[in-house]
Design a protein that fits this description.
13 strands, alpha/beta, two-stranded parallel ribbon, 3 domains, 14 helices, Rossmann fold, nine-stranded mixed β-sheet, 446 residues
Length: 446
């Protein structure tokens, strides 16, 4: 039902209610006067047609339509897309749609609503779209990925970093075990860098070659090849902008590889989880997390597959008041296991209702079916919220700039100096062991 149709129904209902109440009140006064023995004159008609009725109808219509318009404006300003309240953000939101449909504009509106409620925001900016839209925010382009949040409990951090690297670099179980051993050794030395980790891996490879453990040497070599791009990231220079802590933007647009961006995103989620856990559980929204291109680090899966580290962190953040807005261009790249327990699923820019929302609607009303048939001819915004389906037009472009009123200071992150690589001395194997060597294992594995 359109806005004007609802306005007409409200006007008619209010008018009928006014007539019935006025007539009933008039008859009530007549009957009370008769009971008291008073002389009652013949009651005049309640309305003198046509002018009084027309004036009353016009007044009621103006009041009703004005009230409806103000209510619509109030909902548009205090709710996301006029439907989702900010207090529901801690239950997570899923947002998907093709490029240019308005996902970033919707995310900026969610950030603005959070800031109105004095709730901070963290943005994982995959393409560098938010820095120019939020003035005075803290923009981070580089940080130490391996630095633990607490040096007194590095064992847990080593396990989580191993899990993250296994997910991002697609490591095997033997590679993950070897990586965990070297990470633990590095943290015992109170160091945290991929450069040092690469040195330990090369020393491990040399040791395995010296002891003729060629299977372990190949495992170490595979890890060296995968860690090399991460070491190169430590050798690049970047400029962070320190501004207001209300909005922190992790700009990943300058990272050269897909794996580096995914690694940064998962490390950011892990840091936020540690921050949230230190504050304790709550039902109130404490922070809004906008995760662009979330399918790259909160990976979809089948029912029989275990959840990824990103999905596990997102599920845990909800208990601590950290709400996530997971954004993806494809509805089937979102974790459907998360979507079954979220505040809202928003689809923008599709002509027909996506199946991911269709599966959630367990009961249809006839009006819902008519709306679906009516709106299937052009792109719309479909919002599944609290068991109901809402259909809106496409969101308008977000042309404003969110001003946090803070000055930004540049922070130059200098690259790490490259370390000279020392060649491990590999003794020549004895004649009895030569037949165990393949041509690949007798030459340096680099």
């Amino acid at each position: 039902m359109s806005v004007w149709a609802r306005a007409a129904v409200i006007v008619v209902c209010v008018l009928l209610l006014f007539v019935v109440v006025h007539y009933g009140f008039t008859q009530f006064k007549v009957q009370m006067a008769r009971l008291r023995g008073e002389k009652v004159e013949e009651a005049k008609p309640a309305y003198q047609p046509p002018y009084q009725l027309i004036q009353m109808t016009a007044a009621v219509s103006i009041i009703s339509v004005t009230s409806l318009v103000f209510w619509r404006i109030y909902c548009e300003r205090t709710r996301l897309l006029g439907v989702v309240k900010p207090k529901d953000f801690n239950r997570h939101l899923l947002l998907f749609g093709p490029t240019g449909s308005g996902k970033t504009s919707t995310a900026l509106s969610a950030i603005e609503l959070s800031l109105r409620d004095e709730v901070g925001a963290v943005v994982i900016d995959w393409k560098g779209e938010y820095s120019n839209k939020i003035a005075g925010a803290t923009v981070i382009k580089k940080f130490n990925l391996l630095e633990p949040p607490d040096w007194s409990n590095v064992e847990l951090h080593a396990m989580v970093v191993t899990d993250i690297l296994r997910d991002v670099l697609e490591l095997t179980e033997p590679m993950s075990y070897a990586l965990y051993e070297e990470l633990s050794r590095m943290y015992e030395e109170r160091t945290a860098s991929f450069t040092r980790l690469l040195e330990l891996m090369k020393a491990r490879r040399g040791t395995m070659l010296a002891t003729r453990n060629y299977a372990e040497a190949r495992i170490a070599e595979g890890l060296i090849r995968r860690l090399l791009p991460l070491v190169l990231d430590e050798r690049r220079e970047a400029k962070n902008l320190r501004g207001s802590d209300k909005v922190v933007i992790y700009d990943l647009s300058e990272l050269p590889t897909h794996q580096l961006r995914a690694l940064y995103a998962e490390i950011v989620l892990w840091r936020l989880y540690n921050e949230a856990r230190a504050k304790g559980t709550t039902l109130q929204l404490r922070k809004m997390i906008v995760a662009e291109e979330s399918q790259n680090y909160v990976r979809p899966r089948r029912l029989e597959q275990p959840p990824s580290i990103g999905e596990r962190i997102v599920n845990e953040l909800r208990a601590y008041g950290y709400g996530c807005l997971l954004i993806s261009p494809d509805p089937y790249q979102l974790p459907l296991h998360v979507s079954r327990d979220v505040a809202a699923v928003i689809s923008i820019g599709y002509q027909a209702l996506p199946e991911v929302i269709l599966d959630m609607l367990t009961l249809y009303r006839y009006a819902d079916v008519k709306k679906l048939i009516k709106t299937a001819s052009r792109p719309r915004t479909y919002i599944y919220h609290n068991g109901r389906l809402h259909i809106r037009g496409l969101p308008k472009p977000y042309l404003r700039v969110i001003d946090l009123g803070a000055e930004q200071a540049e922070e130059v992150i200098k690259p790490d100096e490259p370390v000279e690589e020392a060649e491990a001395e590999v003794p020549e194997p004895s004649d009895g062991a030569r037949h165990h060597l393949t041509p690949r294992s007798r030459v340096p594995l680099a």
